[in-house]
Amino acid sequence: AKKPASRILVNTGGSQGGTGASTGLAPAFTLGCGTWGGSSVSENVTPLHLINIKRVAYGLKDCTTLAADDTTFNHPELCGSKNDLGFCATSPAEFAAKSNCDSTAADTTDNDKLARLVSELVAAMKGAN
Q: Membrane-spanning residues where (predicted)?
């Protein structure tokens, strides 16, 4: 039978392994029952869960060029007719500005090639490449 699980113990006792004694998990006061049991956590509840920790995060990458700098998404052949757009939109603002053209690339789209490119992108996002 299929049941939801937030942790699976392999070759270890449930009472000691689930609380972290024999598995290397953080020591726990109790097991988090997960969202199925009404809890907000699916991990072992530790002293760190009882402290309100605030974190400050600084940007490490420029969000405006994030997609343009990623070679996984560098497929200019998906931009449609190069005469219409000239280049792919690399941000939502560029896309909105360029998307009001009056012609369409539907006539020149190779569906098989497009399907291969989509499959390649999905595989790259899943880490297969």
A: none
